[in-house]
Amino acid sequence: MLQIILYIFIAFLAIYAIRVLQGPTIWDRLLAMNLMSSKLIAFILIFAAYYQLSFLLDLAILYMLGGFMGTIFICMFFLDRTRGGGKRGSSNTNK
Asked: Which residues are CB-contacts of 6 (< 8 A; sequence separation ≥ 6)?
């Protein structure tokens, strides 16, 4: 049963990897990377429940936090880049 779930998750990851490589916009690529992260977390949780390995739950929580923070930082980077690339909190006046 776990092998079937693994094959399904691998198929989803392959589809999302194609979207990351061919995404027409950066936002499509970011969404695909976020989906890959969530599917990997789901597989870790299923694997941990199936084999009763509680330490993998901590790993999944850390991976969730890392994926969320990575998404936020990438969004902030690209939003700053499209707005002119100025430093946060400073005015861009030439004196």
From this structure: 43
